[in-house]
């Protein structure tokens, strides 16, 4: 059956010989058993299992238009509002499984690939463009339930507005040669989240380029020769889920991707050496509305989780009667209701686009993508403020298994909870807001769709206000 | 025909002998011709005229369930989502006519009265309650298209949390006697907006009381004996609509209402001398969702107007290319899309309530009522910041009619406008953001539904978040 | 005696034949009696009188280094910390007289002229520069106690970053000719505050220019031939100081200044036609520290006034026990203490500069000039929030003189005040925060030293932080 | 020599048999060698060494009034402005050594003890008060250079405003018996920072109590029988100072302190069983101005460090030309200059208090203590925003020692730095803003002097604003 199980996902990843470096050492053995990847691969595998559970299979998958087999719903090209609704339901269901913490759960890249493939007509008849490669690869990915990492970001020697790379050796990944087999890439890309734990890596130029050697779009297997993933330090402390309930399970690694003379075979090249297309494709394709739609669904689930943790603290230490607490909780509710409303507007006003997709309205999704990066850090701060000094008084499960448990039971009990449950909740709140996992989540959400100024500019330019005269 | 025209409205107001004081003088002669009321009465009259224009009559009115005559749509008890939609359409249409500046356009009080009458069953069988009076009066108001002012706010010698009035003479209006004719009221109420320019005044206790003499709800004609309206200083500068385009047309007066031994006839008493009902009625009735729904429709129209003025400035002085300008415009768009989305959610999730009304969802409306008071002052500030020093360089129409026009034409021209049109726009922006009319609008929107802390508390307490454990 | 009295000031202004236009009419008769100028000229005249009162003369004036006569202290070149301290004392004393509302009280321009003249050495030996004219004119101004308006701002057809004026006819004032008598100026300048009610107008190019015809600095009498002042609409409502206690007394007019072929005599030209000097002079001169020092002294007095009004409201309606009120009052105190501390640091760290002046430290003054524009609008808002609905319930003195006074006395009394005193305080608060006078004050303070982004950039570039490596 | 060296400090700590629990295990062996304490004890030891370095001894110590021996400057009772200045210098010097990260460097508690002892006259003649014990103990501490932890915070079953502990067994530490030897304490206290690594623990009731068994003040050695310290999880990742430059050196542990029937000998009891004194002593003593003065000195050093890291990032990736970067840097400068100015004001206006101490002015110190908790989290966020995605791309020193160093050198180089130095700076920035050490620092600074609402209330109530009438 094409939609895979968790076990199939893990076996496929473990079988590949992907080159991954962690703290100066090349990872050998099964990736799924390496401490740095183990917890998150388990969590991802649980997502795949949900596809085939009888109770959820109906909306987690759909019959492949090609084979009739059940394939992942996030690969579907929606053409009706019902399709769009199923898509939302499916994505929310996956997001709930990680409380929205997996920013790169497979539905994100599946959606991206679907949207790009649906927009292949933009490449039709353009120089150095291979729309058929894109469409065929999308179909293959769908039938085999491939998983992806990707990366948009170039390393930069500086970020000055006037910077042009002038190194002889490539720094940002670029085409250094064309051969019979394909194009050859040398250089690096940054911040491939889940790098090393996916079947494939999809590489796209983000637009705004002026050097044809930076113009390309392709996908290759993670274990392609010359491809190398370098991990940052892991933000997993350990595998104890009482002590670190989130970071032990949802720490998506971020990697630097090195292309050491990597050959991309022609059938995997979607376009190359065409500056114009590179600069237009993402913006004109169905990418934006569908990617933003996936993200908003996930972020709503995440905020619901934050709200639940906040309310948990409020009830545990019985502070719901204070005006300042009510104001903080109201702020969370306002954020949540606002995002939900924006999603409803986007879906209510969805329309068939030029590619035949039932496309959600862009403006409310852009507003959400402008709002969330501001609101998320504030809500995280609210949880810290509600927890106050309790966020620091956090012994571990080991303490509760020792002879000082009697002390803890007496001195850390709460009105509603015994000490161990109370500390469990506060450890969760800490892992959500104050751990390195937490601060990386905040940083990640802040920049998900680029810097705030660009998002604001896009929003303003797309939204036509009629001026008063 | 029951739904009245502007002319009928004006004639009715002018015929009444309402006692109104302005700057130490009792107003004599026709109210509609007094400089303080004249512009706003004209604007209100234009609203009534819209009811009977063939092109809009269909949704501005509906057939009275009692008589079949066309009566005002805002009096309708909606029982379907279509009804709710018509209601929104009608209210937006009226709001557009004043750019949302008339906070007390008749649909507000019509809606309130409809919601209260629909909730009359709450009064059934309760002591000193007359649900029939309420229902009958609602029907009368609908058939005669009565207009209303109202007031919730008591004067207070202080606002300390521990304050109890202990004056021998009433300060806050209260019942001092019951007679054969009705109840007798003495004391004052504050902030009756449009006081003096409506047929009736509806008086309700806001709840939270503990003295039965403060417990009542009734409506009486504005010219009832002993009733007196005292105006604040007018914020209209004059009638020149080039110089003061908004304040010359939409300055709703606020009045102190003095009850000098006013007898309210029994048939106009809805309840009295029942603390429990007084403290429960508003909260349990259909008041909140429907009042908030009216307000949100108006506020959306108002923000659209603010957005248009902002964009007008941006285009006129050609500043749309600056990052900080784009960010400010994006902030306006975000506010606008957010409010629109909240309205869509409230209507999408509308349900039949216990009174048989198709009631919009409360939570998104509460969120809107919490958001708008914060966002409106910020958007007003944005317009000031966009206009910058241009907000101060504002000569008058008289200058353009004098020999210095040549100077103005040369020195105040803009890229897109001649000097006179440019100044017209900046004067509008000034009147919207910096005139006394403008600052009163801001203050008014800030407190429309009470202080922010109470709104936040209500929102939190109504919204059930499931706590994480 | 050189330091003049109020009477001398008024007589001098009234004697001049300055051309001023208000609402399409040329002002004839004595300026000091025109409703638009009358109140503010009285207030300014009171400042001059303070110079010669025996009790304050000692620090309000100092002996002229040239003549030994007592001349205004703000003209003094400070060379010791004691001088600097006297200067602060004198400026605070004047500021108190207008509660800091006169942004252009004479000490501001006196200080500017002193700082420019002290920096005349920068002009020494430079092309088209006349340092002696500047020094002589400073001495003349000091001995005659001249008063000034000035203007930095050019009219702009647009404010686009790419704008270059290409009109054939000048828009921004520029040199169109050099003659035997002097340079001839044509075009306009904006926002000359107090325009028309001063002896002189000082005109300086603000820097950042690239056209030599825009490069100049000079001063001429207000009634110079061809010079014309065009008023904006006045923000004075009337002369009743109960109803409008601030705007009736401190409404400084802003004017457009038209140069209709105005000849500036050579002895009044400080420099011209020298782009380099124009772009360097202000920045390298003693202008910044001394102008910022004057402004900060005034702004501290203004905040003290705002604090007093806020505390007045708090006590009158007895709300000091609420946590949110305490937080608002604390915000005011924080602003006030912060500004006072910045002033102390600037004076404590004052040093002799390259011109021999005892110059206050620049950084804390820049910080103050960056802080005040943000904090002032917030404090104004706090006063509005403390006053709440009381800011709208504001009858007039006329009401208190009529038969409805009994109603007002009963219904508007407060815990600490009778009704008339309570309303007096709230009318003051309204005039400070919600009148057109108030909103213009806010706009004025926001832009006093340019836009926030430029101020931030200057601050950053002057302040050398040692980077961590 | 009384002022000790680092070696003496370590030996004393290691010799004690203090009972400390970490992750369910009792620490055995030398505390200074335990991974959880090792780095911070080294850093603290370096502080002591500075006391005796010839170059700094003069102001780091002063001659004991009793013995003439050099003792720590922070124990000195300042009676002149010069004393106060030396005190500031000394505290800044120590703070620089840890970049202000050691919130409980010994000068904090030394200062507290000095201030309390200086205020001993408040205890004179009061019931159950032993002012002599306090004075003698202060002298002993000074002569022996004792180090301290302390704790104000009670465990609470809940934080509801209406909570009263009703457990039979004590939860919050309280007196359960008086014996010949002293008072016997049972129960717990929270958040003793540096618990276990100091000679003594000082225990004070924070005031606001109403049960005499909670009324006490005393100091006992850390290894007193029945005293137990329970650590939270450590935020030190490891001892590599390239990878974790701050957390490996400045991680002050926070501990729960358990009093398991601890006898406090009478000579160490300062007062007990006197509610009135307990609720008045801290507030009326010299505690506030001197504690706030120490804290502000440290916080200024800390902000200087944050500023340096921010500027380091700006220069390394060459982003100083962007307007938004300049605004962010300006925000840092504003915070820094503001705090420095508040300190100058407090010292400039210092006065002899009722205890004969030269006491810094309270208001600006309170303003600082209200400002810092708001500003510090914002500056930390600014560093995160400046670093952007660079805050996540952080390989380790181990990577630079492996064969992939070539990749890193090429792809992570910056305009100004080689890859290893660049990553070193970004790792520092991460450790300062995103590590668990960093988030604990932020939480700690937020609550240093209690919750913001209480601080605001205190500030308002101490600061007398003259109301306008």
Summarize the structure.
Chains A, B, C, D: Residues 279-468 form the HpaB/PvcC/4-BUDH C-terminal domain. With 469 residues, chain A is an alpha+beta fold.
Structure description:
4 copies of one chain form a homotetramer. Chain A is of the alpha+beta class. Helix content of chain A is 47%, strand content 14%. In chain A, the strands form 4 sheets. In chain A, strands 2-1-10-11-7-6 form a 6-stranded mixed β-sheet, with no helix packed on it. In chain A, strands 5-8-9-12 form a 4-stranded mixed β-sheet. In chain A, α9 packs parallel to α11 (362-387), α10 packs antiparallel against α11 (362-387) and α11 runs antiparallel to α16. Chains A and D meet through β7, β10, β11, α11 and α12 of A and β7, β10, β11, α11 and α12 of D.
Descriptive terms for the model:
homotetramer; 469 residues; alpha+beta; 4-hydroxybutyryl-coa dehydratase, domain 1; Butyryl-CoA Dehydrogenase, subunit A, domain 2; Butyryl-CoA Dehydrogenase, subunit A, domain 3; 3 domains; 6-stranded mixed β-sheet; 16 helices; 14 strands; 14% strand; globular
């Amino acid at each position: 059956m094409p939609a895979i199980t968790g076990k199939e996902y893990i076996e496929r990843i473990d079988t590949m010989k992907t080159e991954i470096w962690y703290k100066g050492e090349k990872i050998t053995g099964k990736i799924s058993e390496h401490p740095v990847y183990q917890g998150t691969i388990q969590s991802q595998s649980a997502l795949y299992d949900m596809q085939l559970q009888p109770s959820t299979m109906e909306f987690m998958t759909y019959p492949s238009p090609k084979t009739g087999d059940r394939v992942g719903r996030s690969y579907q090209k929606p053409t009706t509002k019902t399709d769009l609704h199923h898509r939302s339901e499916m994505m929310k269901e996956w997001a709930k499984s990680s409380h929205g913490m997996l920013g790169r759960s497979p539905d994100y890249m599946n959606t991206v690939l679907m949207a790009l493939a649906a927009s292949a007509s933009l490449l039709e008849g353009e120089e150095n463009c291979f729309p058929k490669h894109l469409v065929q690869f999308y179909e293959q990915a769908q039938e085999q339930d491939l998983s992806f990492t990707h990366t948009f970001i170039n390393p930069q020697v500086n970020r000055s507005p006037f910077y042009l790379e002038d190194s002889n050796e490539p720094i940002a990944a670029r085409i250094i040669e064309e051969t019979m087999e394909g194009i050859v890439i040398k250089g690096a890309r940054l911040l491939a989240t889940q790098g090393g734990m996916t079947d494939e890596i999809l590489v796209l130029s983000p637009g705004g380029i002026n050097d044809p050697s930076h113009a390309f779009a392709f996908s290759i297997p993670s274990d392609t020769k010359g491809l190398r993933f370098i991990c940052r330090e892991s933000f997993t402390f350990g595998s104890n889920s009482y002590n670190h309930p989130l970071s032990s399970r949802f720490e998506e690694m971020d990697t630097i991707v090195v292309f050491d003379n990597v050959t991309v075979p022609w059938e995997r090249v979607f376009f190359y050496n065409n500056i114009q297309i590179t600069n237009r494709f993402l913006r004109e394709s169905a990418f934006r509305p569908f990617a933003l739609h996936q993200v908003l669904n996930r972020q709503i689930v995440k905020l619901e989780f934050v709200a639940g943790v906040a309310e948990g603290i409020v009830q545990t230490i019985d502070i719901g009667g204070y005006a300042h607490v009510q104001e903080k909780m109201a702020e969370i509710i306002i954020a949540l209701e606002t995002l939900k409303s924006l999603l409803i507007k986007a879906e209510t006003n969805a329309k068939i686009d030029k590619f035949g997709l039932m496309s959600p309205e862009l403006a409310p999704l852009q507003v959400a993508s402008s709002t969330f990066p501001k609101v998320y850090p504030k809500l995280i701060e609210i949880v810290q403020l509600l927890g106050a000094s309790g966020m620091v008084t956090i012994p571990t499960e080991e303490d509760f298994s020792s002879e000082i448990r009697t002390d803890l039971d007496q001195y850390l009990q709460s009105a509603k909870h015994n000490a161990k449950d109370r500390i469990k909740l506060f450890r969760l709140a800490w892992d959500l807001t104050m751990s390195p996992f937490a601060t990386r989540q905040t940083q990640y959400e802040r920049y998900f769709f680029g810097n705030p100024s660009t998002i604001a500019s896009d929003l303003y330019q797309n939204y036509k206000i009629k001026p008063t005269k």
